[in-house]
Design a protein that fits this description.
- The chain is an all-alpha fold and about 100 residues long.
- The protein has one domain.
- Helix content is about 65%, strand content about 0%.
Length: about 100
């Protein structure tokens, strides 16, 4: 079954790359669906994404933004790739808190 999901994810990625330059906005959603399927079915891909999120705060902020707006199933998959403890956590733009005067 895992093999089926990886093949489907690969097909979605290829279709996404092929249609990203078309005027109809289908490329980015197809690529996003393919990447989410890969992260959901492959532990090595999830670990790699987690490491990339640890190194790049801009990338981590982008994923936090996506997690807040994605459907629950997709958001849960992406939350598994959050950087682990001992790493500076970045607050999502929607969750920014203003500091109160002392």
């Amino acid at each position: 079954m895992k093999f089926f999901w990886l093949i489907l994810a690969s097909i979605l990625l290829v279709l996404g790359f092929a249609t990203v330059w078309l005027p109809i906005p289908t490329g980015v959603p197809l690529m996003a669906a393919g990447l989410i399927l890969i992260v959901a079915t492959n532990r090595a891909a999830a670990r790699h994404l987690r490491k990339r999120r640890q190194k790049g705060s801009r990338l981590n902020r982008a994923f936090l933004w996506i997690e807040d707006r994605a459907p629950r199933r997709f958001s849960r998959i992406l939350r598994r790739t959050r950087p682990r403890k001992g790493v500076e956590q970045v607050v999502a733009p929607a969750e920014d808190q203003t500091t109160l005067p002392n």
